[in-house]
Every structure is written in structure tokens, then in C-alpha cells.
From TrEMBL:
SUPFAM superfamilies: PLP-dependent transferases (SSF53383)
Keyword set includes Transcription regulation: no
Record protein name field: Cysteine desulfurase
PROSITE patterns from the UniProt entry: AA_TRANSFER_CLASS_5 (PS00595)
Signal peptide positions on this chain: none
MF GO annotations: cysteine desulfurase activity; lyase activity; pyridoxal phosphate binding
Amino acid sequence: MYDVQKIRADFPILGRRVNNRPLVYLDNGASAQKPRVVIDAMTKAYEEEYSNVHRGLHYLSTVATEKYEGVRAIVARFLGAPDPDEIVFTTGTTEGINLVSYAWAAPRMEAGDEIVLSVLEHHANIVPWHFLRERQGVVLKWVEPEADGSLDPQKVIDAIGPRTRLVAVTQMSNVTGTLVDVAAICRGARERGVPVLVDGSQGAVHRPVSVPDIGCDFYAITGHKLYGPSGSGAIWIAKDRMKEMRPFLGGGDMIRDVTRDAVTYNDPPMKFEAGTPGIVQQIGMGVALDYLMALGMENVAAHEAALRDYARERFRGLNWLNVQGDAPGKGAIFSFTLDGPAHAHDISTVLDQKGIAVRAGTHCAMPLLEHLGVTATCRASFGLYNTTGEVDALVEALELCHELFA
């Protein structure tokens, strides 16, 4: 049984008060809070087990290396990946996508080659491709969502042409919560011989993931959204694609031999991990993923679906609240504006006085907000520890905002 109150007790910060009100944390889409097991594991790593990894022969280095490297298998299990050696550690999805841009895409793309993107994308899955547009003349082809915020996978497939070299698409919009049928996109792209990169920053947080079932070539995740520490993350890369990639950063464990005249690179995944890594951060992410798998991602998804449905019903009673892109089957993420002069920052400030943490702005998704016809929104993004009572608190605070700004 999914006991949300018991789960909440695992997160120390949820017991605090903000502005003399119980904290209602609804900014999970930006960064989730950390359970005690993650905090304790990272504290232990620093207090009792810290050392650099891989090259040391002493006891502490061995312990740190075993814990650090053990996280690859945890990530692989979390993503349903068949081999831990397909997991490259990163600082988060942004680095993972940039790795693909520099190490795989840049060497094989020429002026006029195309990358297909959706307008739902986070800047992290836009800017690296703009680099290729600016520097190599690559063409970005955009696919727009439907009026309800959903993304028709066939439209993405139909955008693939003879010069398309990559499809890069999110699994879930961080603005609207739109869930994208990435498996259907991957099937269509594979039939046309085009690889697919999936931004899993939001998708992996809210539902089970199996990269073999999705059928993608690259799948990136971010630790701090998965109830782990910032500065942690990973990208799954299919072995055939790994063989096509050149190193992105140089130094440290990505080499096997270095002479004055030559360098021999390490085998993947080490080939793509230069320098001293975020040892404790990755250990913390591994503990966070174990925590999620112990809860069961199916259970997390069911809990959040119930929250989504409850929030949607409550919001429908507020005829002055404008929810952006409220597609069926979306995740528990709501971006909204209010009728009247109130800016998203004004709304966020009032909510904060009630102890409610939401995000306000463009959410690193300017093309999507432009498509929606708004300059900024407030975003309430729910997580595995949120409750229907917190939905009620949000609605009550929004009613106050309406009174103040109407």
C-alpha cells in the first residue's frame, strides 16, 4: 500500500514551516527534495568513505570506487538497460545531451542535415542543436503540439526527411506535463534509419522506464529531479551509437595511454568521463534510485495520476484560472495564468506567503511559451510526497490571488 504520510516522513524538509505556514513544496519539476537515506548516504560517504576513485590501491579508494561504480548497475536497472556499460555518468541531462551533440552529432552532420525537435522541448534539448545550426549549418525542423498540448507522434515521424540525422524529443514536458509517446516516435524513426534521443528529465521521474521498450538510441536523466543530489545524472547510450562517438572531454579516466605523440582512449563508458567525477553526488543518485524502485515506479505513477485528476477537478471550479496545455493523460504538472493584470511573479509571491513553493517564469522553454501565447506562467509540479490537502491549499491561495488582482 502506498502510504504518502509515511513517505513524507522520509523527507526532513517537508516538516519545516515557511512564512509561519507548513511548507507545500510544488516545485518538483525544477528540483525535488531528498529523502533521509540519500542525505545519510552522502554524509557517510564524506565522513567515512571518501577518496578519489579508480586509480588508488588503498582501502578508502577501493570502497569509494566500488560504491561509485555500483551506481551504473542501479541506473541500468532503473532504466531497464541490459548492460551497465551503456550508462555514462554526467552532471545531469544538460551535459548528457551536450555529450551527444559534441561526440556523436557534430562529427557526422553537414550543412543542410536536419534535426527534428518538438516545440515542447526544454532549452537543454534545444541549445546544443542550435550550436550545430550556428557552427555547421544544421537545420532544425520543429513540430508543434496540438491545441490541448499533446504531441502527435505521427507528426514527428512525418517531419523526418532524407536529410534528417536525428530526432530529439522529450518524454514529458516540464511546462505542461504532456506525456509524449516516444516509443511510437522511435518505431517510426527506426523504420527510416534515424536515431532518437529522448530527454527523460521529467519522464523518468513520474513513471517506469524501459529503454528497450522505448526503442531509443539515447536516454538522459537528471539526479536532482529524481530525489537525488544536484550535479548527478546519467545518459544511456546504445552500444552501436557508443562505437560511433568520439570523446568530448579529455583527461583523467577517459584515457588508456598517453605519450608525447599519441593518446589511446579508454573503452566506453569511461571514454566519455573525463576528470575527477562527482563521486558522492553519483553515490547519492544511486541511493535515490534504489529508494524509488523500492516504492515502485508504478505506485508513484498511480499516486501522481490521482493527484493530477484531483487538481484538475479543483481547477475546473476556478473559471478565471487558465491552465496551459491540459492534455489527457498528462503528468501532474500544471502551468497557469490568471485573468487580469497579475504577472506570474506576483502570483508566485502571494503563494510563497502561504508557504507554497511554485515556479514562475518561462521554465527554460521559451519556444513553447511563445507557442502558447504567454510570456510567463506559474507552474505547480507535484511529486511522490504531495497530497490532496496540498492541492486544496494551492486552490485556497489562488482564490486569494484572484481577490487581490481581479
